[in-house]
UniProtKB/TrEMBL annotation:
Functional note: An aminoacyl-tRNA editing enzyme that deacylates mischarged D-aminoacyl-tRNAs. Also deacylates mischarged glycyl-tRNA(Ala), protecting cells against glycine mischarging by AlaRS. Acts via tRNA-based rather than protein-based catalysis; rejects L-amino acids rather than detecting D-amino acids in the active site. By recycling D-aminoacyl-tRNA to D-amino acids and free tRNA molecules, this enzyme counteracts the toxicity associated with the formation of D-aminoacyl-tRNA entities in vivo and helps enforce protein L-homochirality.
Organism of provenance: Gallaecimonas pentaromativorans
Protein name from the UniProt record: D-aminoacyl-tRNA deacylase
GO molecular function annotations of the record: D-tyrosyl-tRNA(Tyr) deacylase activity; Gly-tRNA(Ala) deacylase activity; Ser(Gly)-tRNA(Ala) hydrolase activity; tRNA binding
Record motif Gly-cisPro motif, important for rejection of L-amino acids, residues: 137-138
Length: 145
């Protein structure tokens, strides 16, 4: 399971011209689910995202996690993170979880984040989404469980 997190001052997801999820300060989480991922990985990755210290404290050091900074999460499914790009000019998605399993584990991850007390907005799994964001920093990290 892969989470590409970006510290944002704002982010939103639109589908067919309508906003379905939006946050102000927080983390945009692009989530990729791979074959072999399970509930335990989803829980571990949710903990890691919630605790990852990427927000500045009063001294300007990255010492605060999203909750301590008063931020929210915008979680968007992103199966292309599981792409194999090692050969050729076209990515292979053979390592991505099948859609039904990917959606199930995406929901497990979202619920785990909510269970940690974080405000969570989402996109819609499998939809054609337009994601807009203002990356603050820019600050971007690749996390795995």
């Amino acid at each position: 399971m892969i989470a590409l997190i970006q510290r944002v001052s704002q982010a939103r997801v639109d589908i067919a011209g309508s906003t379905v999820g939006a946050i102000d300060q927080g983390l945009l989480v692009l989530l990729g689910v791979e074959k072999g991922d399970d509930e335990a990985k989803a829980q571990r990755l949710a903990q890691k995202v919630a605790k990852y210290r990427v927000f500045s404290d009063d001294e300007g050091k990255m010492n605060l996690n999203v909750g301590q900074a008063g931020g929210s999460l915008l979680i968007v499914s992103q199966f292309t993170l599981a792409a194999d790009t090692q050969s050729g000019n076209r990515p292979s998605f053979s390592s991505a979880a099948p859609p039904a399993e990917g959606e199930r584990l995406y929901q497990v991850f979202c619920e785990a984040c909510k269970g940690l007390g974080l405000p969570v907005a989402t996109g819609h799994f499998g939809a054609d989404m337009q994601v807009s964001l203002c990356n603050d920093g820019p600050v971007t990290f690749w996390l795995t469980a």
